[in-house]
Design a protein that fits this description.
By secondary structure, the chain is an alpha/beta fold. It contains 13 helices and eight strands. It starts with a helix and ends with a helix. 39% of the residues are buried.
Length: 306
């Protein structure tokens, strides 16, 4: 019995030594990243497929992370994005990768597969929210969903950089509090405009529309513009008729997925005096996720009558 105990304690000591060595090795491969106040040279590399995830990742990671966002151009159609060799390099160096999923950024699957790493965490926002290909992929318009995504990002950062655990928890709290003005505005709009009928050129605003209790057209016309194909003449006639008859109170216009057909619809709305509300799917420069969403809500609110 005592002999057994000795053997056990010896193996425990051995295990402890192993763990210390492993810990040190882990520390080395992490480049010494620590505590949420790391110098930029040793920061943890985060790659986000879209810049609003990059922004949220930066808000949650602070100085301990170095964020690279891939889709950043608010004037280009993200559905048509093709990756570059720079993107591949960024992925290869990343410890944490944030993708949207639901078929929105399939180029990321290829980049990740081309650069296998056991040492990297991948967060797929759509998976967290139970969305898959075929569902509306614009899930960042689901503000409460983004809080769940933020929690997963925080957990991943805490695992990758345990020394920064408290700092990441604090940043997570700060992020959530910062969403309050946005959530308050949503409540105010819903209280006044629930049930209001709108149309749109592409279903980018869908989850926000649901949260606001708006009824927004989401049919052939919208799916055709999302996929970059031509909607049927019937679908075009239907949206035109809704605008001419003022059946819809506003047109949500995605300036990133335009073509002659959506431009015509926008022109018709202007002519008919139906307010056109611009919505985008890439965060504009010099904005935060919060300010971007809030400014779009302000424009919508003004268009509906304040
Ligand atoms: Zn889209």
């Amino acid at each position: 019995m005592s002999c057994h105990r000795v053997r056990l304690s010896r193996s425990l000591r051995l295990l402890a030594t192993c763990l210390i060595i492993l810990g040190l090795a882990g520390g080395c491969t992490r480049g010494g990243s620590g505590s949420g106040s790391t110098a930029p040279g040793s920061a943890l590399n985060v790659v986000a497929a879209e810049n609003f995830y990059g922004d949220i990742g930066k808000q949650l990671g602070g100085p301990a992370v170095r964020v690279t966002s891939i889709i950043t151009d608010p004037n280009a159609d993200p559905h048509e994005y093709e990756s570059s060799s720079d993107n591949a390099k960024a992925i290869a160096a990343a410890r944490l990768v944030i993708v949207n999923g639901a078929g929105y950024d399939t180029f990321m699957d290829k980049l990740l597969a081309a650069s296998p790493s056991r040492d990297r965490k991948v967060i797929t926002a759509a998976t967290i929210l139970g969305k898959r290909e075929g569902d509306n992929p614009h899930i960042w318009y689901d503000v409460s969903g983004m809080q769940q995504v933020a929690d997963q990002i925080t957990q991943a950062l805490q695992t990758l950089d345990p020394a920064g655990r408290d700092a990441y928890a604090m940043r997570n709290q700060r992020f959530k509090s910062s969403l309050q003005p946005l959530l308050d505005r949503m409540i105010a709009i819903k209280a006044k405009y629930e049930g209001t009928h709108l149309t749109q050129t592409e279903p980018v605003f869908g989850y926000m529309g649901d949260a606001l209790g708006l009824t927004i057209d989401d049919g052939d016309f919208q799916h055709a513009s999302e996929e970059g194909t031509d909607p049927s003449p019937q679908a075009v006639a239907a949206i035109n008729q809704e605008i001419r008859s003022h059946t819809v109170k506003a047109l949500l216009y995605n300036s990133q997925t335009t073509g002659p057909v959506t431009t015509k619809v926008k022109d018709l709305a202007k002519q008919a005096g139906v307010p056109v509300v611009g919505v985008s799917e890439t965060e504009p420069a010099n904005q935060t996720y919060q300010s971007w969403m809030l400014s779009q809500l302000s424009t919508l609110q003004a268009a509906l009558g304040g």
